[in-house]
Amino acid sequence: MIENMKKNDKNAQKTIQIQESKGSIKELQSVNVPAFLDKWGPENVVQVYDPQLDMRGVLVIDNTCLGPGKGGIRISPTVTPFEVFRLARAMTWKCALAGIPFGGAKSGIQANPFKVDKIKMMKAFAKLIAPYVPEKYIAAPDMNVGEREIEVFVETIGDRRGATGKPKKLGGIPHELGTTGFGVGIALETSLKIISNKIGLSEKLSEVRVAIQGFGNVGIGIAKYLAKKGATVVAINDLWGCIYNKDGIDIETAEKYSYATCEEQSIKNYEESKVIPRDDILKVDCDVFIPCACGDVLTIETAPYLKVKLVVEGANNAVTPDAEHLLFKKGTIVVPDCLANAGGVIGSYAEYKGMTVEEAFSLIESKIIANTKFVMRGYVDSGCTPRKIAKTLAEKRILKAMKERTSWAESQKNYGK
Protein backbone atom coordinates (compact mmCIF):
# COMPACT_ATOMS: atom_id res chain seq x y z
CA MET A 1 0.00 0.00 0.00
CA ILE A 2 1.12 3.49 -0.71
CA GLU A 3 1.79 5.24 2.57
CA ASN A 4 -0.02 8.48 1.72
CA MET A 5 -3.21 6.60 0.91
CA LYS A 6 -2.86 4.58 4.10
CA LYS A 7 -2.92 7.85 5.99
CA ASN A 8 -6.06 8.89 4.12
CA ASP A 9 -7.75 5.62 5.07
CA LYS A 10 -6.77 6.08 8.71
CA ASN A 11 -8.08 9.64 8.66
CA ALA A 12 -11.37 8.45 7.17
CA GLN A 13 -11.73 5.77 9.88
CA LYS A 14 -10.86 8.33 12.54
CA THR A 15 -13.56 10.64 11.22
CA ILE A 16 -16.09 7.82 11.32
CA GLN A 17 -15.18 7.07 14.95
CA ILE A 18 -15.47 10.74 15.90
CA GLN A 19 -18.80 10.99 14.06
CA GLU A 20 -20.24 8.01 15.88
CA SER A 21 -19.02 8.87 19.35
CA LYS A 22 -21.31 10.59 21.83
CA GLY A 23 -20.73 14.32 22.16
CA SER A 24 -18.62 14.39 18.99
CA ILE A 25 -16.69 17.47 17.91
CA LYS A 26 -18.38 19.47 15.17
CA GLU A 27 -15.57 19.42 12.64
CA LEU A 28 -17.63 21.30 10.07
CA GLN A 29 -17.71 24.35 12.32
CA SER A 30 -13.97 24.46 12.88
CA VAL A 31 -13.07 25.50 9.33
CA ASN A 32 -12.09 29.08 8.57
CA VAL A 33 -14.41 29.69 5.63
CA PRO A 34 -13.13 33.22 4.81
CA ALA A 35 -9.69 31.69 4.17
CA PHE A 36 -10.80 30.41 0.77
CA LEU A 37 -12.71 33.45 -0.48
CA ASP A 38 -11.47 35.07 -3.71
CA LYS A 39 -12.83 37.18 -6.56
CA TRP A 40 -14.74 34.21 -8.01
CA GLY A 41 -16.59 33.25 -4.83
CA PRO A 42 -18.00 31.46 -2.99
CA GLU A 43 -21.23 33.41 -2.76
CA ASN A 44 -22.77 31.24 -0.04
CA VAL A 45 -21.42 28.68 2.43
CA VAL A 46 -24.29 27.08 4.33
CA GLN A 47 -23.69 24.65 7.19
CA VAL A 48 -26.67 22.72 8.54
CA TYR A 49 -27.24 20.33 11.42
CA ASP A 50 -30.08 18.00 12.44
CA PRO A 51 -29.52 17.03 16.10
CA GLN A 52 -31.96 14.11 16.01
CA LEU A 53 -30.08 12.34 13.21
CA ASP A 54 -26.70 13.90 13.94
CA MET A 55 -26.81 14.97 10.30
CA ARG A 56 -24.12 17.51 9.40
CA GLY A 57 -24.20 19.00 5.98
CA VAL A 58 -22.67 21.80 3.98
CA LEU A 59 -23.71 23.58 0.79
CA VAL A 60 -21.28 25.79 -1.13
CA ILE A 61 -22.64 27.99 -3.90
CA ASP A 62 -19.51 29.25 -5.57
CA ASN A 63 -20.45 31.45 -8.53
CA THR A 64 -23.84 32.02 -10.18
CA CYS A 65 -22.98 34.59 -12.84
CA LEU A 66 -23.77 32.13 -15.62
CA GLY A 67 -26.81 30.60 -13.89
CA PRO A 68 -27.89 28.71 -10.75
CA GLY A 69 -25.12 26.78 -9.04
CA LYS A 70 -24.98 23.19 -10.26
CA GLY A 71 -23.36 20.33 -8.40
CA GLY A 72 -23.96 16.99 -6.77
CA ILE A 73 -24.56 15.91 -3.19
CA ARG A 74 -22.06 13.46 -1.70
CA ILE A 75 -22.20 11.43 1.49
CA SER A 76 -18.77 10.78 2.98
CA PRO A 77 -17.15 10.76 6.42
CA THR A 78 -14.51 13.20 5.20
CA VAL A 79 -16.84 15.99 4.03
CA THR A 80 -15.68 19.46 5.11
CA PRO A 81 -16.51 22.97 3.86
CA PHE A 82 -13.10 23.21 2.17
CA GLU A 83 -13.53 19.92 0.33
CA VAL A 84 -17.01 20.96 -0.83
CA PHE A 85 -15.69 24.39 -1.83
CA ARG A 86 -12.97 22.84 -4.00
CA LEU A 87 -15.60 20.67 -5.69
CA ALA A 88 -17.90 23.67 -6.16
CA ARG A 89 -15.05 25.62 -7.75
CA ALA A 90 -14.38 22.70 -10.10
CA MET A 91 -18.04 22.90 -11.11
CA THR A 92 -17.69 26.63 -11.76
CA TRP A 93 -14.92 25.98 -14.30
CA LYS A 94 -16.65 22.90 -15.71
CA CYS A 95 -19.96 24.58 -16.45
CA ALA A 96 -18.26 27.62 -17.96
CA LEU A 97 -16.03 25.48 -20.17
CA ALA A 98 -19.00 23.36 -21.26
CA GLY A 99 -20.83 26.52 -22.32
CA ILE A 100 -24.00 25.78 -20.35
CA PRO A 101 -25.98 28.33 -18.29
CA PHE A 102 -25.10 26.93 -14.88
CA GLY A 103 -22.79 28.21 -12.17
CA GLY A 104 -20.75 26.14 -9.77
CA ALA A 105 -21.93 24.60 -6.49
CA LYS A 106 -21.62 21.43 -4.46
CA SER A 107 -22.95 19.95 -1.24
CA GLY A 108 -22.18 17.13 1.13
CA ILE A 109 -23.31 15.24 4.20
CA GLN A 110 -20.63 14.17 6.66
CA ALA A 111 -21.46 10.53 7.44
CA ASN A 112 -20.40 6.95 6.82
CA PRO A 113 -22.70 5.96 3.92
CA PHE A 114 -22.53 2.28 4.88
CA LYS A 115 -23.72 2.85 8.45
CA VAL A 116 -26.45 5.50 8.20
CA ASP A 117 -29.92 5.64 6.71
CA LYS A 118 -29.12 7.68 3.60
CA ILE A 119 -32.79 8.35 2.85
CA LYS A 120 -33.40 9.92 6.28
CA MET A 121 -30.19 11.91 5.97
CA MET A 122 -31.21 13.19 2.54
CA LYS A 123 -34.67 14.25 3.73
CA ALA A 124 -33.19 16.19 6.65
CA PHE A 125 -30.57 17.83 4.44
CA ALA A 126 -33.14 18.79 1.80
CA LYS A 127 -35.40 20.47 4.35
CA LEU A 128 -32.56 22.58 5.71
CA ILE A 129 -31.19 23.83 2.37
CA ALA A 130 -34.62 24.20 0.69
CA PRO A 131 -34.52 28.05 0.70
CA TYR A 132 -31.67 27.92 -1.85
CA VAL A 133 -33.29 25.37 -4.20
CA PRO A 134 -33.75 25.68 -7.17
CA GLU A 135 -33.15 29.42 -7.59
CA LYS A 136 -29.51 29.33 -6.46
CA TYR A 137 -28.71 25.61 -6.25
CA ILE A 138 -29.65 22.60 -8.37
CA ALA A 139 -28.50 19.27 -6.96
CA ALA A 140 -27.45 15.99 -8.58
CA PRO A 141 -26.03 12.58 -7.59
CA ASP A 142 -22.43 12.32 -6.42
CA MET A 143 -20.36 9.96 -4.30
CA ASN A 144 -22.64 7.48 -2.46
CA VAL A 145 -25.76 9.25 -3.75
CA GLY A 146 -27.85 7.80 -6.58
CA GLU A 147 -31.19 8.33 -8.27
CA ARG A 148 -33.17 7.03 -5.26
CA GLU A 149 -31.65 9.63 -2.92
CA ILE A 150 -32.21 12.34 -5.55
CA GLU A 151 -35.84 11.27 -5.85
CA VAL A 152 -36.22 11.77 -2.10
CA PHE A 153 -34.45 15.13 -2.35
CA VAL A 154 -36.84 16.59 -4.93
CA GLU A 155 -39.89 15.13 -3.17
CA THR A 156 -38.79 16.80 0.06
CA ILE A 157 -38.09 20.11 -1.68
CA GLY A 158 -41.40 19.86 -3.51
CA ASP A 159 -39.92 20.94 -6.83
CA ARG A 160 -38.56 18.61 -9.52
CA ARG A 161 -36.41 21.45 -10.83
CA GLY A 162 -34.37 21.16 -7.64
CA ALA A 163 -32.17 18.35 -8.95
CA THR A 164 -31.12 16.45 -12.01
CA GLY A 165 -30.13 12.80 -12.22
CA LYS A 166 -33.68 11.91 -11.18
CA PRO A 167 -35.29 8.55 -12.00
CA LYS A 168 -36.89 8.25 -15.45
CA LYS A 169 -40.37 8.15 -13.88
CA LEU A 170 -39.79 11.74 -12.72
CA GLY A 171 -38.62 12.86 -16.13
CA GLY A 172 -34.98 12.44 -15.24
CA ILE A 173 -31.84 11.22 -16.94
CA PRO A 174 -30.20 9.11 -14.20
CA HIS A 175 -26.42 9.33 -13.93
CA GLU A 176 -26.52 5.54 -13.74
CA LEU A 177 -27.04 5.61 -17.51
CA GLY A 178 -23.36 6.49 -17.73
CA THR A 179 -23.36 10.10 -18.90
CA THR A 180 -20.18 10.99 -17.02
CA GLY A 181 -18.26 7.88 -18.09
CA PHE A 182 -19.39 8.40 -21.68
CA GLY A 183 -18.00 11.93 -21.60
CA VAL A 184 -14.69 10.67 -20.19
CA GLY A 185 -14.48 8.23 -23.09
CA ILE A 186 -15.19 10.94 -25.66
CA ALA A 187 -12.51 13.19 -24.12
CA LEU A 188 -9.96 10.34 -24.12
CA GLU A 189 -10.68 9.28 -27.70
CA THR A 190 -10.63 12.85 -29.03
CA SER A 191 -7.42 13.65 -27.13
CA LEU A 192 -5.63 10.66 -28.62
CA LYS A 193 -6.52 11.78 -32.14
CA ILE A 194 -4.79 15.11 -31.50
CA ILE A 195 -1.83 14.36 -29.23
CA SER A 196 -1.04 10.67 -29.76
CA ASN A 197 2.11 11.37 -31.78
CA LYS A 198 3.30 13.94 -29.25
CA ILE A 199 3.02 11.55 -26.29
CA GLY A 200 3.95 8.33 -28.06
CA LEU A 201 0.61 6.49 -28.05
CA SER A 202 -1.60 5.08 -30.77
CA GLU A 203 -4.59 7.21 -31.68
CA LYS A 204 -6.71 4.03 -31.78
CA LEU A 205 -8.41 3.04 -28.53
CA SER A 206 -8.18 -0.58 -29.64
CA GLU A 207 -4.40 -0.34 -29.23
CA VAL A 208 -4.43 1.32 -25.79
CA ARG A 209 -4.13 -0.34 -22.35
CA VAL A 210 -6.06 1.34 -19.55
CA ALA A 211 -6.29 1.19 -15.73
CA ILE A 212 -9.49 2.41 -14.05
CA GLN A 213 -9.44 3.53 -10.42
CA GLY A 214 -12.90 3.24 -8.91
CA PHE A 215 -15.75 1.06 -10.14
CA GLY A 216 -18.87 3.03 -9.30
CA ASN A 217 -20.96 5.19 -11.60
CA VAL A 218 -18.08 6.77 -13.53
CA GLY A 219 -15.81 3.73 -13.49
CA ILE A 220 -18.33 1.30 -14.94
CA GLY A 221 -19.44 3.92 -17.47
CA ILE A 222 -15.95 4.45 -18.90
CA ALA A 223 -15.22 0.70 -18.71
CA LYS A 224 -18.23 -0.05 -20.92
CA TYR A 225 -17.22 2.68 -23.36
CA LEU A 226 -13.69 1.31 -23.61
CA ALA A 227 -14.90 -2.26 -24.04
CA LYS A 228 -17.18 -1.19 -26.89
CA LYS A 229 -14.24 0.53 -28.58
CA GLY A 230 -11.95 -2.47 -28.21
CA ALA A 231 -9.55 -0.96 -25.65
CA THR A 232 -7.79 -3.31 -23.21
CA VAL A 233 -8.71 -2.60 -19.59
CA VAL A 234 -5.88 -4.23 -17.64
CA ALA A 235 -6.73 -3.12 -14.08
CA ILE A 236 -9.74 -2.02 -12.03
CA ASN A 237 -9.94 -1.26 -8.34
CA ASP A 238 -12.47 -0.26 -5.72
CA LEU A 239 -12.32 0.44 -1.99
CA TRP A 240 -11.44 -3.17 -1.09
CA GLY A 241 -8.99 -4.32 -3.72
CA CYS A 242 -7.67 -4.35 -7.28
CA ILE A 243 -7.64 -6.86 -10.14
CA TYR A 244 -5.02 -7.03 -12.88
CA ASN A 245 -4.91 -8.95 -16.15
CA LYS A 246 -2.35 -7.95 -18.77
CA ASP A 247 -4.52 -9.56 -21.46
CA GLY A 248 -7.58 -7.55 -20.48
CA ILE A 249 -10.58 -7.78 -18.16
CA ASP A 250 -13.96 -8.86 -19.50
CA ILE A 251 -16.11 -5.86 -18.56
CA GLU A 252 -19.43 -7.60 -19.14
CA THR A 253 -18.48 -10.20 -16.53
CA ALA A 254 -16.85 -7.68 -14.19
CA GLU A 255 -19.89 -5.40 -14.24
CA LYS A 256 -21.67 -7.39 -11.54
CA TYR A 257 -18.98 -6.20 -9.11
CA SER A 258 -19.57 -2.50 -9.82
CA TYR A 259 -21.18 -0.23 -7.20
CA ALA A 260 -19.86 -2.47 -4.40
CA THR A 261 -20.94 -1.48 -0.90
CA CYS A 262 -19.03 -4.18 1.00
CA GLU A 263 -16.00 -6.43 0.57
CA GLU A 264 -18.15 -9.40 -0.47
CA GLN A 265 -19.31 -7.45 -3.54
CA SER A 266 -15.84 -6.08 -4.37
CA ILE A 267 -14.19 -6.29 -7.78
CA LYS A 268 -11.45 -8.32 -6.12
CA ASN A 269 -13.86 -11.27 -6.22
CA TYR A 270 -13.70 -11.33 -10.02
CA GLU A 271 -12.01 -14.67 -10.64
CA GLU A 272 -10.32 -14.27 -14.02
CA SER A 273 -7.62 -11.82 -12.93
CA LYS A 274 -4.82 -11.52 -10.42
CA VAL A 275 -5.74 -9.77 -7.17
CA ILE A 276 -3.22 -7.13 -6.12
CA PRO A 277 -3.24 -4.52 -3.33
CA ARG A 278 -5.78 -1.79 -4.01
CA ASP A 279 -3.36 1.09 -4.47
CA ASP A 280 -0.93 -0.90 -6.59
CA ILE A 281 -3.12 0.12 -9.49
CA LEU A 282 -0.82 3.16 -9.69
CA LYS A 283 2.11 0.84 -10.45
CA VAL A 284 0.42 -1.12 -13.25
CA ASP A 285 2.14 -1.07 -16.63
CA CYS A 286 -0.34 0.58 -19.02
CA ASP A 287 -0.84 3.58 -21.29
CA VAL A 288 -3.73 5.48 -19.71
CA PHE A 289 -4.78 5.92 -16.08
CA ILE A 290 -8.34 7.05 -15.34
CA PRO A 291 -9.01 8.01 -11.68
CA CYS A 292 -12.76 7.73 -11.06
CA ALA A 293 -12.86 7.44 -7.28
CA CYS A 294 -12.15 10.56 -5.22
CA GLY A 295 -9.96 13.64 -5.10
CA ASP A 296 -6.23 13.96 -4.43
CA VAL A 297 -5.29 10.40 -5.38
CA LEU A 298 -2.31 11.61 -7.39
CA THR A 299 -0.04 13.68 -5.17
CA ILE A 300 3.63 14.55 -5.20
CA GLU A 301 4.17 11.29 -3.27
CA THR A 302 1.97 8.95 -5.34
CA ALA A 303 2.28 10.34 -8.89
CA PRO A 304 5.86 9.02 -9.40
CA TYR A 305 4.49 5.46 -9.32
CA LEU A 306 2.62 6.01 -12.60
CA LYS A 307 4.07 4.54 -15.80
CA VAL A 308 1.44 6.02 -18.12
CA LYS A 309 1.51 8.64 -20.87
CA LEU A 310 -1.98 10.00 -20.26
CA VAL A 311 -4.17 10.63 -17.19
CA VAL A 312 -7.85 11.38 -17.73
CA GLU A 313 -9.59 12.80 -14.63
CA GLY A 314 -12.86 10.92 -14.25
CA ALA A 315 -13.05 12.25 -10.67
CA ASN A 316 -12.90 15.90 -9.66
CA ASN A 317 -9.59 17.18 -8.27
CA ALA A 318 -7.98 13.76 -8.70
CA VAL A 319 -4.55 15.25 -9.42
CA THR A 320 -3.00 17.86 -7.13
CA PRO A 321 -1.24 20.86 -8.76
CA ASP A 322 2.20 19.69 -7.60
CA ALA A 323 1.58 16.21 -8.97
CA GLU A 324 0.38 17.57 -12.29
CA HIS A 325 3.51 19.72 -12.59
CA LEU A 326 5.68 16.68 -11.88
CA LEU A 327 3.82 14.55 -14.43
CA PHE A 328 3.95 17.26 -17.08
CA LYS A 329 7.72 17.59 -16.68
CA LYS A 330 8.19 13.87 -17.36
CA GLY A 331 5.84 13.93 -20.36
CA THR A 332 2.62 12.59 -18.84
CA ILE A 333 -0.36 14.70 -19.88
CA VAL A 334 -3.45 15.21 -17.71
CA VAL A 335 -6.82 15.72 -19.37
CA PRO A 336 -8.43 17.89 -16.66
CA ASP A 337 -11.66 17.15 -14.84
CA CYS A 338 -13.38 20.34 -16.03
CA LEU A 339 -13.09 18.94 -19.57
CA ALA A 340 -13.05 15.16 -19.18
CA ASN A 341 -15.88 14.49 -16.74
CA ALA A 342 -18.29 17.19 -17.92
CA GLY A 343 -20.61 14.57 -19.40
CA GLY A 344 -22.59 14.41 -16.17
CA VAL A 345 -23.32 18.12 -15.96
CA ILE A 346 -24.02 18.41 -19.70
CA GLY A 347 -26.45 15.54 -19.31
CA SER A 348 -27.93 17.37 -16.33
CA TYR A 349 -28.48 20.44 -18.49
CA ALA A 350 -30.20 18.26 -21.10
CA GLU A 351 -32.50 16.93 -18.37
CA TYR A 352 -33.12 20.47 -17.10
CA LYS A 353 -34.23 21.48 -20.61
CA GLY A 354 -36.49 18.46 -20.99
CA MET A 355 -34.43 16.65 -23.63
CA THR A 356 -34.56 12.92 -24.28
CA VAL A 357 -31.81 10.50 -23.26
CA GLU A 358 -30.69 10.26 -26.89
CA GLU A 359 -30.52 14.04 -27.19
CA ALA A 360 -28.53 14.21 -23.94
CA PHE A 361 -25.87 11.79 -25.17
CA SER A 362 -25.69 13.61 -28.49
CA LEU A 363 -25.18 16.93 -26.70
CA ILE A 364 -22.48 15.44 -24.46
CA GLU A 365 -20.65 14.08 -27.47
CA SER A 366 -20.74 17.30 -29.50
CA LYS A 367 -19.75 19.60 -26.64
CA ILE A 368 -16.92 17.45 -25.30
CA ILE A 369 -15.49 16.83 -28.77
CA ALA A 370 -15.48 20.57 -29.49
CA ASN A 371 -13.97 21.51 -26.13
CA THR A 372 -11.37 18.74 -26.22
CA LYS A 373 -10.23 19.79 -29.67
CA PHE A 374 -9.86 23.40 -28.50
CA VAL A 375 -7.96 22.48 -25.32
CA MET A 376 -5.67 19.85 -26.82
CA ARG A 377 -4.81 21.92 -29.85
CA GLY A 378 -4.05 24.76 -27.47
CA TYR A 379 -1.70 22.46 -25.57
CA VAL A 380 0.07 21.38 -28.77
CA ASP A 381 0.44 24.97 -30.01
CA SER A 382 1.43 26.66 -26.74
CA GLY A 383 3.14 23.97 -24.68
CA CYS A 384 0.95 24.92 -21.70
CA THR A 385 -0.87 22.24 -19.75
CA PRO A 386 -4.36 21.35 -21.00
CA ARG A 387 -5.71 22.50 -17.62
CA LYS A 388 -4.29 25.99 -18.11
CA ILE A 389 -5.84 26.23 -21.58
CA ALA A 390 -9.22 25.04 -20.28
CA LYS A 391 -9.21 27.22 -17.17
CA THR A 392 -8.24 30.34 -19.12
CA LEU A 393 -11.26 29.92 -21.40
CA ALA A 394 -13.58 29.24 -18.45
CA GLU A 395 -12.29 32.30 -16.58
CA LYS A 396 -12.79 34.47 -19.64
CA ARG A 397 -16.44 33.44 -19.91
CA ILE A 398 -17.10 33.97 -16.21
CA LEU A 399 -15.39 37.36 -16.15
CA LYS A 400 -17.59 38.50 -19.01
CA ALA A 401 -20.70 37.36 -17.13
CA MET A 402 -19.52 39.05 -13.92
CA LYS A 403 -19.00 42.35 -15.74
CA GLU A 404 -22.43 42.10 -17.34
CA ARG A 405 -23.99 41.42 -13.94
CA THR A 406 -22.20 44.44 -12.43
CA SER A 407 -23.27 46.67 -15.32
CA TRP A 408 -26.88 45.54 -14.96
CA ALA A 409 -26.83 46.12 -11.19
CA GLU A 410 -25.42 49.61 -11.69
CA SER A 411 -28.08 50.43 -14.27
CA GLN A 412 -30.83 49.33 -11.87
CA LYS A 413 -29.33 51.38 -9.05
CA ASN A 414 -29.30 54.48 -11.20
CA TYR A 415 -32.70 53.85 -12.80
CA GLY A 416 -35.05 56.78 -12.26
CA LYS A 417 -32.45 59.13 -10.82
The general outline is globular
Distance between the termini: 68 Å
User: How many domains in all?
Assistant: 2
CATH architecture of the largest domain: 3-Layer(aba) Sandwich
Count of helical stretches: 12
Overall pLDDT level? 90
Q: Roughly how many Å is the radius of gyration?
A: 21 Å
Question: How does this structure look, described?
Answer:
There is one protein chain. The protein has 417 residues and is an alpha/beta fold. It has two domains: 27-162, Leucine Dehydrogenase, chain A, domain 1 (Rossmann fold, 3-Layer(aba) Sandwich); 179-394, 3-Layer(aba) Sandwich (Rossmann fold), CATH 3.40.50. Helix content is 42%, strand content 14%. It is built from twelve helices and 13 strands. The chain has helices at 3-20, 81-98, 118-129, 147-157, 179-199, 217-229, 251-254, 321-329, 337-340, 343-352, 357-382, 386-414, and strands spanning 44-50, 55-63, 69-70, 73-76, 103-110, 137-138, 209-213, 232-237, 242-244, 274-276, 288-291, 310-312, 333-335. The strands form two sheets. It has a seven-stranded mixed sheet with strand order 10-9-8-7-11-12-13, with helices on both faces. A hairpin with a 4-residue loop joins strand 8 (232-237) and strand 9. Helix 3 (118-129) runs parallel beside helix 4 (147-157) and helix 5 runs antiparallel to helix 10. The longest helix is centred in the last third of the chain and has 29 residues, at 386-414. The chain is globular and about 60 Å long. Residues 1-27 have low confidence and may be disordered.
